[in-house]
Amino acid sequence: MTATSFDYTPLLAEGLPPAAAKWNGFPKYNFVGGNNDADQVPVAKLLEASIAVLTREGAMLATYGLNSGPLGYRPLREFLVGKLKRDAGITCTADEILITSGSLQGLDLVNGILLSPGDTVLIEQECYQGSITRLTRRGVKIVGIPLDHDGMRTDAVAAALADLKAKGIRPKYIYTIPTVQNPTGTIMSKQRRAELLKLAEDYGVPIFEDDCYADLIWNGQRPPALYAMSKTNNIIHIGSFSKSVAPALRVGYIVAPWNVLSRILSTKTDAGSGALEQMVLAEYCQAHFSDHVPKLRRGLRVKLEAMMEALAEQFGTAAEFDDPRGGIFLWVKLPDTVDTLKLYQAALASGIAINPGTEWSVNAAHSGSRLRLCFASPSVQEIRDGVAALAEVCRREFGVPSRSANVERAAGA
């Protein structure tokens, strides 16, 4: 006898996103997602940290909040106080940091206290997909700000703010990833940061600063965070350990003045983010973080160079890209005749996963021939083979490149 499945369809709430597809494993060549280099996960040191902290403090797992309160495990927050001061110039206390279940929860919590349907926000035209989809689902009006080699263009911000003010609209915030922008890999200059802060102060609009990729700058040198430069406490800052240690740990954080953080905390009703992850990270990071990250950067840089070389070899001048200053993504422009959403579908059927540009942009016309490639997770050989396979699919579907760069090179020799 075959059991019939109960039909939940008429009971579902309105406005849900489409149903998720079942996961059937990663494709052969996987250039999507924020996955990192498996060989760079410090497994042995994390294991040592786990044993040490659980031996010493494991009994605290019996208490919600680990005797540290609802903001998160205090030793981890104290580590962050020092790290943020040293790396980003941020002066804060442990009581101005809230540990979250990844930076995505940070996005949800900040949006939850600030946004209502019909509100307006300014974000980068090319931006993190998770930010775009969250705003769209909340019924928020998005004003996309173009980028250049220095990140979000402040002249465009000024024009947008002036236009909105003339219409009687005050945006709820300006969202930016100023340090290793996703997907473009740009870093906003200190001068432009000052310009953005001045505009935000003049128009009375806060800035939502996403700093999740800032640890992965190749030379380790970064401008101060917007949070550090602000004189009016009009910045909410979020960060993560996903890119610097391991994404599956799901540990992020929010930095904000207590008058803001107290409102965020009252909506975080999950009884606390994962305690074990926080304990292990605190133990590990105090001893090893400053040694680990430079090694991770070096390994990622090797993979980036392999990807840029493979694109140049397989696509020739048909693939345009800038050498990003850090991170795990390469933002690639193909000829306008290439629809990367259709390329994504054809590539996936051939075992190659890419992110089409329209998923990472609020301007479909500008991003339709662009794609985002993650180089962190695949091996160097997988990068080379995968880019070659992608070129074959692109040539078959769009005639781009017209022939391989190897053939072109041989013909010109």
What can you see in these coordinates?
With 413 residues, the protein is α/β, with parallel strands linked by helices. The chain folds into 2 domains: 24-41 and 292-412, Aspartate Aminotransferase, domain 1, CATH 3.90.1150; 43-288, Aspartate Aminotransferase, domain 2 (3-Layer(aba) Sandwich). 42% of the residues lie in helices and 12% in strands. The chain has 13 helices and 14 strands. It has helices spanning 43-57, 74-88, 102-114, 129-137, 154-166, 190-203, 226-229, 258-267, 275-315, 340-349, 364-367, 380-398, 405-412; strands at 29-30, 97-100, 120-124, 141-145, 147-148, 151-152, 174-176, 207-210, 235-240, 252-255, 329-333, 352-353, 355-356, 370-374. The chain has a 7-stranded mixed sheet with strand order 2-10-9-8-7-3-4, with helices on both faces. A 3-stranded antiparallel sheet has the order 11-14-13. Strand 7, helix 6 and strand 8 (207-210) form a beta-alpha-beta unit. Helix 2 (74-88) runs parallel beside helix 9 (275-315), helix 3 crosses helix 8 and helix 5 (154-166) runs parallel beside helix 6 (190-203). The chain is globular. The N and C termini lie far apart (71 Å). 44% of the residues are buried. The model is unreliable at 407-413 (pLDDT under 50).
Topology readout:
Blueprint: E1 29-30, H1 43-57, H2 74-88, E2 97-100, H3 102-114, E3 120-124, H4 129-137, E4 141-145, E5 147-148, E6 151-152, H5 154-166, E7 174-176, H6 190-203, E8 207-210, H7 226-229, E9 235-240, E10 252-255, H8 258-267, H9 275-315, E11 329-333, H10 340-349, E12 352-353, E13 355-356, H11 364-367, E14 370-374, H12 380-398, H13 405-412
Parallel strand pairs: 1-12, 3-4, 3-7, 7-8, 8-9
Antiparallel strand pairs: 2-10, 5-6, 9-10, 11-14, 13-14
Helix pairs in contact: 1-9, 2-9, 3-4, 3-8, 5-6, 9-12
